[in-house]
């Protein structure tokens, strides 16, 4: 970042956002403003400030931009993929629109980086480049979460212009220290002795990304947008980010189990048919809905099983060439560090 750079990070108290904030602090001239509904104060550093706000509240968001005057915005906040459609639409679509409007109206704000997802794209099993990627739309989608991420992805790219440079960072499943979703699920499965099970034939490949590298990619994009020489190649663009090692989902999971001291031999794997799991998940959701009147949802959900029937296979060459991004040097070591943390904290 350039000298005396002010960065506003939505969701800066969360998993990815927290790592982005840590990365930003490597530059002593950068100050960070964390904006979320209930920001968690984790540092007494004078360079960081915490601001409670609903990102769909235009008056509040405008006031924050007037106060903070950020040079760059990194927008990571999103509800969980299992949240209600109304919450997903409100935060991912309406909230992104509100932030973009405020960023464009703030003279000091020059860069806007958005965190998108593999869920926003139609799945592929061949190395996909950004120019061939197909985003879901409001009328064509599989899951509401993916639709809202896709619409926001497109909104951010379209908002690029002379008054605001924008970029989209598209991420697959994230793993790493402080994870609140993926690794805790793996640890739970391990402790329940379910780690030798897999759903389906485990043939479709997925991308994964170590959280520190995901955070770094956002910083690279924001730096480039603030650099007059680099900005033209980055502005209005989307970038695939991953470890660059597409692999079947349960192969990656078993790498994690092995790193935690519980390797699984091929002959020990029990495979449950994908179709049967879809039926079980759907039935479980209906039972929960009937007996809790929609107040609770089961851990096993149909959209999670459907995700295993999708997959993702990306080329990260564009990010390498334009952003200077390099994936984690040793994925096995990153997994080991991550699982050491998870086994102690989950």
TrEMBL record:
Gene3D superfamilies per UniProt: NAD(P)-binding Rossmann-like Domain (3.40.50.720)
Pfam families hit by this protein: 3Beta_HSD (PF01073)
InterPro entries: 3Beta_OHSteriod_DH/Estase, KR_dom, Lipid_A_modif_metabolic_enz, NAD(P)-bd_dom_sf
Domain Ketoreductase per the UniProt entry, residue ranges: 5-177
Record's keyword annotation contains Metal-binding: no
GO molecular function, one term: oxidoreductase activity, acting on the CH-OH group of donors, NAD or NADP as acceptor
Any one Gene Ontology BP term: steroid biosynthetic process
Keywords of the record: Oxidoreductase
Presence of the UniProt keyword Transmembrane in the record: no
PANTHER family for this protein: BIFUNCTIONAL POLYMYXIN RESISTANCE PROTEIN ARNA, SHORT CHAIN DEHYDROGENASE_REDUCTASE FAMILY 42E, MEMBER 2
Family according to the record: Belongs to the 3-beta-HSD family.
Name under which the protein is recorded: NAD(P)-binding protein
Organism of provenance: Lentithecium fluviatile CBS 122367
């Amino acid at each position: 970042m350039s000298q005396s750079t002010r960065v506003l990070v939505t969701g800066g108290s969360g998993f990815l956002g927290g790592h982005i904030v840590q990365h930003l602090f490597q530059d002593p001239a950068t100050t960070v403003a964390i904006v979320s509904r209930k920001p968690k104060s984790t540092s007494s550093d004078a360079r960081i400030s915490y601001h409670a706000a609903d990102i769909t509240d235009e008056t509040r968001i405008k006031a924050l931009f007037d106060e903070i005057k950020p040079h760059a915005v990194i927008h990571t906040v999103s509800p969980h993929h299992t949240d209600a459609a109304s919450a997903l639409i409100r935060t991912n679509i309406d909230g992104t629109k509100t932030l973009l409007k405020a960023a464009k109206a703030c003279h000091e704000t020059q860069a806007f980086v958005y965190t998108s997802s593999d869920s926003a794209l139609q799945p592929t099993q061949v190395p996909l480049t950004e120019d061939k990627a197909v985003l879901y739309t409001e009328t064509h989608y599989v899951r509401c979460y993916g639709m809202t991420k896709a619409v926001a992805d497109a909104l951010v790219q379209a908002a690029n212009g002379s008054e605001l440079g924008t970029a989209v960072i598209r991420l697959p499943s994230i793993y790493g220290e402080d994870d609140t979703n993926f690794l805790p699920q793996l640890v739970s499965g391990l402790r329940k002795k379910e780690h030798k099970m897999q759903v389906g034939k485990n043939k479709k490949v997925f991308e994964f990304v170590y959280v520190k590298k995901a955070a770094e990619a956002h910083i690279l994009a924001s730096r480039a947008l603030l650099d007059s020489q680099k900005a033209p190649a980055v502005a209005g663009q989307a970038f695939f980010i991953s470890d660059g090692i597409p692999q079947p989902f349960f192969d990656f999971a078993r790498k994690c189990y092995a790193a935690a001291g519980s390797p699984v031999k091929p002959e020990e794997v029990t495979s449950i048919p994908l179709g049967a799991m879809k039926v079980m998940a759907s039935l479980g959701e209906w039972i929960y809905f009937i007996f809790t009147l929609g107040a609770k949802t089961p851990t096993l959900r149909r959209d999670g099983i459907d995700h295993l029937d999708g997959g993702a296979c990306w080329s990260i060459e564009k990010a390498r060439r334009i952003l200077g991004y390099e994936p984690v040097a040793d994925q096995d070591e990153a997994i080991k560090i991550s699982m050491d943390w998870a086994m102690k904290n989950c």
